[in-house]
Structure formats: C-alpha cells, structure tokens
C-alpha cells in the first residue's frame, strides 16, 4: 500500500519535472498521475478496495474558505503582519534536533536572515528563514507536523 507521504512526494516530483503521465504498481495497488494544464491530477486506483487517505491534521482537511476565515479570526488585525509560509511539502521541525531548544518562540525578535525552523523533505533538511525583520506573534504548526506547500508556519509582526 502507498503511504500518504509517498504519494505527496511523487506528486511534487512529477509536478516539478517534464513528465506528463506517470504510472506505478506495487503489491496490487496502482497509482496513476497525469498533468493537465500545468496541474497534477491523480486518477482513481484500479483495485476494488479503497485505501482510506486522511490528512495528517484537521487544518489541511478544511475547505479553503473556512481555513482563511479561521486564520483571520485568530490573527491580530494589523497590517504589519507577515506570514512565513512553507516553500515545500515536508515535515516541520522547530529545532535542529530533539534535544535542543526551538529556533524561535512567540515574542522572539527575528531579522530577515534568522532561521525559524526546518522543513524536511525527502531526507533533505531545509532551513527556513524569517524573510522579514520583526517579532514572532504566532506559531501556526506543531513540531513534527506535516506541512503543505504555501501553508503558513509563523506570523511575524514587521
């Protein structure tokens, strides 16, 4: 059976490549991915039993409108706020190792080159920087949580 993380990594790799059609079969399960108008579209598996696919957290499973409304409700209403977003699909880590302190916590001052977290994708650990000078107002994800491309990670008051 395919794991959700494996499927997401396949989609990302196909999306970044020049491949338009991709098909893979493993242990009786088959996955087909086809690009259509620049987007990656996944077709239904061929086997008769369905594989339940659940998002790792409720946040990623919400409709876009509700998620945006929730973010607006929880974030302070200030025009100087900047969202630090994930540049890739991967696993969010607040520190460089489990036995060290988090890079940042709420209230910490950061500059545009400050490392705020790591996003691990396909065994590569990518340091994410603040991109702006300011103060961490809110941390939107938990350590070890799966994050999507473009998902907000932090809110910084510039």
CATH superfamily label of the largest domain: RNA polymerase II/Efflux pump adaptor protein, barrel-sandwich hybrid domain
Strand order of the largest sheet: 4-11-9-6
Write down the CATH class of the largest domain.
Answer: Mainly Beta
Q: Please summarize the sheet with the most strands.
A: 4 strands, antiparallel
Net shape: elongated
Spans of at least 5 consecutive residues with low confidence: 38-76
Give the quaternary arrangement of the chains: single chain
How much of the residues is beta strand, in percent?
35-45%
Calculate the mean pLDDT score and round it.
76
CATH second-level architecture of the largest domain: Beta Barrel
- In the CATH hierarchy, the third-tier topology of the largest domain is known as OB fold (Dihydrolipoamide Acetyltransferase, E2P)
Radius of gyration: 18 Å
Structural class determined from secondary elements? alpha+beta
Secondary structure tally, helices: 3
| N-C termini distance | 45 Å
Q: Count the beta strands.
A: 11
- Proportion of helical residues: 10-25%
């Amino acid at each position: 059976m395919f794991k959700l993380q494996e499927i997401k990594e396949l989609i990302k790799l196909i999306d970044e490549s020049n491949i338009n059609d991709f098909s893979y079969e493993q242990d009786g399960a088959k996955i087909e991915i086809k690009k259509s108008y620049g987007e990656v579209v996944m077709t239904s598996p061929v086997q008769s039993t369905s594989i339940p696919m659940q998002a790792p957290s409720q946040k990623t499973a919400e409709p876009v409108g509700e998620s945006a409304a929730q973010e607006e409700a929880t974030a302070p209403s200030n025009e100087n706020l900047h969202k630090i977003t994930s540049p890739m699909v991967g696993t969010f880590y607040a520190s460089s190792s489990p036995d060290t302190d988090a890079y940042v916590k709420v209230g910490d001052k950061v500059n545009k080159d400050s490392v705020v977290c790591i996003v691990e994708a396909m065994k590569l650990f990518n340091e994410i920087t603040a991109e702006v000078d300011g103060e961490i107002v809110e941390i939107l994800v938990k350590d070890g949580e799966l994050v999507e491309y473009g998902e907000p990670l932090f809110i910084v008051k510039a």
